[in-house]
Amino acid sequence: MKKILIADDHDLVRETLADYIRNAGEFSVDQASSLDECLDQIHQNGAYDLVLLDFTMPGMTLPDGLLHTLEANSNHPVAIISGTASPETARRALASGAAGFLPKTIAPETL
Predict the structure, then answer these.
(1) pLDDT (tens digit per residue) in 40-70
(2) What residue ranges of the chain have pLDDT lower than 50?
(3) Out of 25, 59, 88, 111, which residue is the most buried by the measure of CB atoms under 10 Å away?
(4) How far apart are CA 100 and CA 43, in angstroms?
(5) What is the pTM of this model?
(6) Helix/strand/coil (H/E/C) assignment for every residue in the chain
(7) Other C-beta atoms within 10 Å of 88: how many?
(8) Dihedrals phi, psi of 7, to nearest 5 degrees
């Protein structure tokens, strides 16, 4: 079973994504509401197969928050999700090592 961590400070977004991903297949999904909580989850549970990291949650900065998460997650994929980031921010995230950049407007099937 693949392990996914969703880190987003909006409860509705985080919990809806978690439910959708759990129902889509054989995934174990954990949740965090800040960068510190995300890093704590990784340290407690080991590396995740994928971390979805909100661009604007508490404690998150680019590139530092992304780099800390990549390091903590043993360089397993970390993707950025955002509802407000510009295309330039998406390019910076990808250049800093993000495995992908997902706008919160993405269709569920695409996710």
Answers:
(1) 999 999 999 999 999 999 999 999 999 999 9
(2) none
(3) 59
(4) 22
(5) 0.94
(6) CEEEEEECCCHHHHHHHHHHHHHHCCEEEEEECCHHHHHHHHHHHCCCCEEEEECCCCCCCCCHHHHHHHHHCCCCCEEEEECCCCHHHHHHHHHCCCCEEEECCCCCCCC
(7) 8
(8) -115, 105
